[in-house]
Amino acid sequence: MATLRDIRQRINGVKKTQQITKAMKMVAAAKLRRAQNRILSARPFAYELADMLGHLVTQVDVSLNPLLKPREVEKVCLVVVTSDRGLCGGFNSNLLRFTVAHIQKHYSSQKEQGTLRLICVGRKGYEYFNRRKFDIHRRYLGIFGRLSFADIQDIVEDIKDDYLSGAFDRVEIVYNEFKSVAIPKITHEQFLPIPPKDIKEESKSKAAVDYIYEPSPEEIVNKVIPKHLDTHLWRVMLESNAAEEGSRMAAMDAATENAKELIRTLNLTFNKARQAAITTEILDIVGGANALESSS
């Protein structure tokens, strides 16, 4: 049975842990506010650019651009975006389980044939798939500590070069999309070839507009595609970063509350043990007094 000293030491240890988790929650909350501001600024431009490209693609011959032309899917690449650090609840574990299930459901034959390759953005995803002997084509670690648009452009350039060289027939991205502070949404999107936007069912509140483009739609498409790929991956990274900080804040908040409950339980245990010790001492004193009285 734990002594009073042991219980007191454990209470002090839990209190120190509670202070750490509370501080980490505050830091994550501050980072989350900055990440939210960045993603809210990036989303409109990324969505409008994708929208414009979707309309343009319907007016050009997609077979003339290798980044638009569909291929028979034999070699597949999955870009898996996780975090570099832990202590963020199920942020990484849920995404990794989803990725493995997605591979088993859609690309099991490619995995068996060795034509499925991974690009890991984030240390947690790399460590997970490396331990399980997946074919990791590239890895980008420490990106989120210094997240910049220039780094994302370099990653896009690497992926684009590999795709154009024939290393892959399809590139998909799996990441956590920021929806709320506590619950990110696991999302997978096709990155290359750029999927044509389905504009057959346009919003009923908008009438379809036939634009006149200058220069030609083909020239505009060739100029817009690199910008679209850059902003697409940039938005994905910002989404993942915001979702990570939201998950970390929620996890640290839960840890702080658990520590509070554990301290309350330990205090009850401590008080019961102290009362038991006092009762034992009183019984010893009374027993000794009775013994002296009976001997006299």
Name the features.
five-stranded mixed β-sheet, alpha/beta, 296 residues, single chain, 2 domains, Pyruvate Kinase, Chain: A, domain 1, elongated
What does this structure look like?
The protein has helices at residues 4-57, 91-106, 108-113, 123-131, 149-164, 217-295, and strands at residues 76-81, 116-121, 136-140, 170-177, 185-192. It folds into two domains: 4-21 and 252-289, no CATH class; 33-248, ATP synthase, F1 complex, gamma subunit (Pyruvate Kinase, Chain: A, domain 1), CATH 3.40.1380. The chain starts with a helix and ends with a helix. Residues 198-207 have low confidence and may be disordered. 61% of the residues lie in helices and 11% in strands. The longest helix has 79 residues, at 217-295. It has a five-stranded mixed sheet with strand order 3-2-1-4-5, with helices on both faces. With 296 residues, the chain is an alpha/beta fold. It is elongated and about 120 Å long.
Distance between the termini: 38 Å
The name CATH uses for the topology of the largest domain is Pyruvate Kinase, Chain: A, domain 1
What proportion strand? 5-15%
- Would you identify the CATH architecture of the largest domain? 3-Layer(aba) Sandwich
Q: So how many helices?
A: 6
CATH superfamily of the largest domain: ATP synthase, F1 complex, gamma subunit
**Major β-sheet strand ordering:** 3-2-1-4-5
Mean pLDDT: 88
The major beta sheet can be summarized as: 5 strands, mixed
CATH C-level class of the largest domain is Alpha Beta
Strand/helix succession? HEHHEHEHEEH
What is the overall shape?
Answer: elongated
**How much helix, percentage-wise, in residues?**
55-70%
The tally of domains stands at 2
Q: Which structural category fits the helices and strands?
A: alpha/beta
The gyration radius over C-alpha positions equals 29 Å
Kindly state the number of beta strands: 5
